[in-house]
Amino acid sequence: MAWSDLPKDLLCSISSQLPIVDFIRFSLVCTSWNYVVANNIILGIDFHPSPWLLLPNEAGEASDTLTFYDIAIKEEGGLDRHHHLSSLDYHISGRRCIGSNDGWLVTLDKIDLQPRIFNPLTKAEICLPSLFTIPEEQCHSIMPEYASDGSFETFYNEIHPQFSTNAKIIHEIYFGKIVISSNDSHGTAVVIHGYRISLALTKPDDQAWELGPQMPYYDTNELEEFEDIFYHKEEQRFYAITHFSMVLAFDLKGQNIEVICPPIQDPLTINSDCKNYIFFLLGSLLKVEREITDLNLQNNRRHMWPGPGEPWCNDKTSRISVLKLGPGVTSSCSFSQWIPVDDLEGFSIFIGCNQTFALHHKVAPGIRPNCVYFNDQWDAMSPTKVAHDFGLYDLQNHCFEYFVYPDSQPKLSPSIWFMPSFT
What we know:
Domain F-box: 1-40
Structural class: mainly beta
Organism: Dendrobium nobile (Orchid)
Protein name: F-box domain-containing protein
Radius of gyration: 22 Å
Low-confidence stretches: 301-312
InterPro entries: F-box-like_dom_sf, F-box_BR-signaling, F-box_dom, KIB1-4_b-propeller
Helix content: under 10%
Number of domains: 2
Largest sheet: 5 strands, mixed
Number of strands: 28
Mean pLDDT: 78
């Protein structure tokens, strides 16, 4: 029997167990095998999950190539853990990646500030309204200033005039991640943005963004801000967490707001360098606390300004904790209601500029169980900062592993976790 004559059911079973790179190679063997792969995609039968880390390109936003680091490939045997998707042209050239969800990247144009949802494997793309259309509110109002040739030069905040920045980096530091409910024209997108981090919502067919849920009226703390969002598919609503662990839930229209957990009672006990991520796993609401340390301060350079050509600082993740929201949360939230977790029952969580997701090590061979995989934090991006911060934290062994060595390149663009998919 020739390879091309193998039963289609057998080929379908084999291809569904392959990681993406082997899945693509499988489709190139012959016409009949390619047909099986194409049919799998139509039926929604995807390949074996394999998380990739999108790495900043040396050519920056002018590049038409995306470079990924495959953590599922073992380093033994000299196998290259890097994958390159090239000839993506206008899909990524001049754009920054600002999020990812189920095989789709969210990119942002640095001039018109228009986000797009983009699948780099199929090159399918969905446009969202420009972020210039976010309405003015208490802590947000940006307007472009024009150079003599008519091009955008700088952007500034009318309400906070001290917040002003060059047009080349406004899209790097003023807008955080964009979270989407689905990768189609019917989904809702939520952006974390602004001088004091706020929320805004839109849909692909909308003409503009709308303001999302605001901080409750009783909150007066200057440091309180939204830090992460998670979309719960079964409940069809978003969950947002703030710096002081207040959790809000709201529907796809930004309405029917529910306070799931109020902020902690003593904000002074929270480290300002600690970031929160929110996620649901096995029916429980989890938050991941991530403390980021300035290595210059750690090396007793607290009162030293950087010299000419020196980086402003290097950030490194120094602590990660996973906590579960316990029952009986009332109007006064406390630490006792967030219960520490060190066993994820074989799952691992992926946090960063992407939408937080989890994978079981038996479903995605190559990942380590009961770990938190992290990458660059979006609000730590700066042209003067170096040493990208990505790796994993083993919850049971209480140890870090930085599996990609930092480089000396400025880290304007963050690394992002990405789950390749044809759907």
